[in-house]
Amino acid sequence: MNFQSKLPDVGTTIFTIMSQLATDHKAINLGQGFPDFNPDTELLDLVSNAMHQGHNQYPPMAGVPALREAISGKVQALYGHHYDSNTEITVTSGATEGLMASILAFVRSGDEVVLIEPFYDSYIPAIHLAGGIPVPVPLQAPTAERPCYQIDWERIRGAINSKTRMLIINFPHNPTGINLRESDLDELERIVDETGILILSDEAYEHIVFDGHQHQSLARRPALAANAVVISSFGKTYSATGWKIGYCCAPVALSSEIRKVHQFVVFTVSSPMQVALATYMQNPAPYLGLSAFYQKKRDRLFEGLKNTRLVPMPSQGTFFLLADYSAVSDLPEAEFARWLTTEHGVGVIPVSAFYRNPHAAESNHGLARFCFAKRDETLDAAMERLAAV
């Protein structure tokens, strides 16, 4: 059969490779970003009840109305912006489908899409499938004096031109763990005012922000919300990544286009999970307490790494933390991740995997990404192994 691949550069993802390597070598997997514990039993019981109550057939294409109403109420309470639950909120098959549907809806052949590098791995394949041209703009890499990645807004503004259709942002940021501040929203407002660009804001980790800071959702600013698709994830919020349920919030004109794609990609999303989530969301305590829950785990990993030759870096959000391994090895990041997994039994993800060219020197800064969404005993066992490195 003779055909040309639409994604010739896409193979097995680094997450699959590293997870399989961890399994093969009986390593503790701190690589792939998922909890090793169950969701709240109350939520599990609500799913079971929904099944027994008959919620097992197709729900409405845009999502169960009660769930969309609950999402609208949450966003209003947290960020002060009202999205109409009937026309401006769409429940998707995970945040990833929300991203894909949004990119396919708005990016046309030849359009440029600016994205911040390092970036989540689904962005570029989605842009390519839409016929678009990705334009990565790198964050400023950390230094000894400045141990966090930094956003270069002037460089981002400079990458936008008449061919640019969309800017994709992701904060709290995976993989670096940095977050937006009020001043960053000011910069984004300036960019939108000058260019009228559409922003796709991946806010999957909106409820995991540390040290007393607030999540700076684009929904906080009317000028940004009017030009943005805001995406989030129930999987990250409720420790149920395998359920694959997320949502898109956007003005009605944008939501209408997203739904056109959504209905032909998946049509709709699991009924009993949606019904259960609508009920569970009535109590805000689980998502309001999530930052404190994960901050304890971040601190446990951070302090544990101090007893190793790896140097932990500050994490402002997400359930990831970066560590500098330059005192241990001068291997490129992917090779170091494989070595740590196979020789010392702790699986990690190389930060270079989040760059367009993982093998380039400018993509390798001697950093590995650790996931701390794990039970305390899992983290402690990993720290014991890392102390021997």
Would you count the extended β strands for me? 13
Structural class label: alpha/beta
- The percent of residues in helical segments reads 25-40%
Strand percentage, roughly?
Answer: 5-15%
- Compute the number of helices: 15
Distance linking N and C termini: 49 Å
Proper CATH architecture of the largest domain? 3-Layer(aba) Sandwich
CATH class bucket of the largest domain: Alpha Beta
Instruction: Provide the spatial order of strands within the biggest beta sheet.
Output: 2-8-7-6-5-3-4
How many domains make up the coordinates?
A: 2
Question: How would you sum up the major sheet?
Answer: 7 strands, mixed
Describe, in short, the structure shown.
This protein is of the alpha/beta class and 389 residues long. The chain is 40% helix and 14% strand.
Task: Describe this protein's structure.
By secondary structure, this protein is α/β, with parallel strands linked by helices. It has two domains: 14-39 and 288-386, Alpha-Beta Complex (Aspartate Aminotransferase, domain 1), CATH 3.90.1150; 42-286, Type I PLP-dependent aspartate aminotransferase-like (Major domain) (Aspartate Aminotransferase, domain 2), CATH 3.40.640.10. It has helices at residues 14-24, 41-52, 65-79, 94-106, 123-129, 153-159, 182-195, 222-225, 234-237, 252-265, 271-280, 285-288, 290-305, 333-344, 376-386; strands at 28-29, 89-92, 112-117, 133-138, 164-170, 198-202, 228-233, 246-249, 311-312, 320-324, 346-347, 349-350, 367-371. The strands form three sheets. It has a seven-stranded mixed beta sheet, with helices on both faces. A four-stranded antiparallel beta sheet has the order 9-10-13-12. Strands 1-11 form a two-stranded parallel ribbon. Strand 9 (311-312) and strand 10 (320-324) form a beta hairpin. Helix 2 (41-52) crosses helix 11 (271-280) and helix 4 packs parallel to helix 5 (123-129). The protein is globular, with a radius of gyration of 21 Å. The model has no long low-confidence stretch (mean pLDDT 96).
